[in-house]
Amino acid sequence: MRGDQRTSGELSRKEGGKIFGSGSRTPIAITFLVKKLDSTEKGQIYFYDIGDYLDRKHKLAIIQRFKSINGIKEENNFQLLEPDANNDWVNQGERSFGKFIQIGDKSKAVNPKVFTNYSLGVATGRDVWCYNFSVNNLQARIKAFIKFYNTEVKRFGASSKKVSPESFVIRDLTRISWNRNALQDLKKGKEYEFSKANIYKALYRPFSKTNFYFSKQLNAMTYQNFKLFPNPNTINRIISVTGIGSKDGLSTIMSDVIADLNLLKGGAQCFPLRIFEKQEAGDSLFANQSESEDFIVSDVITDDGLQLFLDAYSDKTFKKEDLFYYIYGLLHSPDYRERFQNNLSKELPRIPAVNSFEDFMAFSKAGRKLGDLHVNYETVEPFPVTFKEGDLRLADISDPKSFYRVKKMKFASKQDKATVF
Asked: Of 30, 160, 309, 362, which has the most beta carbons under 10 Å away?
């Protein structure tokens, strides 16, 4: 019966309205279990999907028309379900998807993959402290946080009572936000230090860059992001994609700064163009000359991954960076997203090689242009806007704040996705 209202966008519209009005937000199914005592066959499952874009009234009208399961059978609408090789009964994926190279794989299995390493976005555990559009406010907040934390460390160390940190500390959300890491550090007597070098830029949400305090002391989980952006001036790019199991389908966005874990639903998985490994003193004649030279810079796209695509287009040459942007362009392809929708809801993307080298380069060039637009969205030339009120230089706007406030944007129509208002 559909009716899943925990989704959003196009998927929510496909699900239709709530089946029981305000009484439900979850999808509804009508199930009949029939037991045949003399049956010699295994159980069978017959399935009927009510359809896309139907509201409550239309769905109930269909059920009323059927009257019984025989009504569905008479119209040949039942589908006999059989599990595929992945033991999926419904929403089965395209079989060809498994033949494509994995974008990344952290299992111990030796499988071909495009990226040798990738990382989840940063999980701060205390966003209100670690993010701020004002650098001054961010510094003031972090300094106050650290000062209060260090005071608690000293107070706990001076206490003669044998109590747990959890029951000892002052829990005042206006002064500090405790988590497991901070409580463990307090128990060890570890004090924190503020450093301006920890102030980065981060992509908190799509097209929302802000100042960020990047620190293993104050962030709950930094994962491998220090290898992606070892210092605030690191030049790198990452392709962030939705995590496995996102109900809203595949989303992807490129960034040249650290990504927050919740940048995309399901937990943003970040695939970098380069990775920066800390080198030991003496590894290079130029080690320690500058902060940027303290790292060994490596490509993250594997040689095998590149070779697979080179083999697909014999006598043609291109670089790993071309493949990086090809992937970004491909992941935005409506055909790719629609065809492999069910696969992408269960695993990370796999990357096919398109039929011709010309198509490959077309995707690569489009991905590069799109990446530049997404990364530099604050500095690109603004798209021309037409106001229905006419030339605003001649308008008498008594309340500019209210006039320019955007409450809701929508496409001009389902067909016209180039115009929003």
From this structure: 309
Return all residues near 128 (Cβ < 8 A) that are at least 6 apart.
177
- DSSP 8-state code for residue 221: B
Nearest CA among 298, 278, 288, 270 for reference residue 230 = 278
By the 8 A CB rule, do 276 and 292 touch?
Answer: no
**The pLDDT value given to residue 304:** 94
Phi and psi (nearest 5°) for 199? -90, 115
List, for residues 298-347, the tens digit of each pLDDT value: 999 999 999 999 999 988 999 999 999 999 999 999 999 999 999 998 89
DSSP percent split of the chain into helix, strand, coil, nearest 5: 35, 15, 50
What one-character DSSP code corresponds to residue 420?
Answer: B
Are 92 and 84 spatial neighbours (Cβ–Cβ below 8 Å)? yes
Q: What's the average model confidence in pLDDT over 140-163?
A: 92
Task: Kindly write down the DSSP assignment for every residue of 311-378, as one continuous string.
Answer: HHSTT----HHHHHHHHHHHHT-HHHHHHTHHHHTTS--EEPPPSSHHHHHHHHHHHHHHHHHHHTTT
> Beta strands of 256-293 (E only): which ranges?
258-259, 269-272, 274-278
The H or E element spanning position 10 is helix 9-15
User: 329, 361 in Cβ contact below 8 A?
Assistant: no
Contact 164, 155 (CB under 8 A): no
Contacts of 133 (CB under 8 A, 6+ apart): 210, 211
pLDDT in tens, 384-399: 777 777 777 777 888 8
Q: Provide the pairing of β-strand 258-259 with 269-272.
A: unpaired
Residue 297 has which token pair? 């810079």
Map residue 254 onto helix, strand or coil.
strand
CA-to-CA dists, residue 309 to 239, 304, 320, 352, 356, angstroms: 19, 9, 10, 9, 11
**CB neighbours (10 Å) of residue 47?**
13
SS3 129: helix
> The tokens of 409 are what?
């944007």
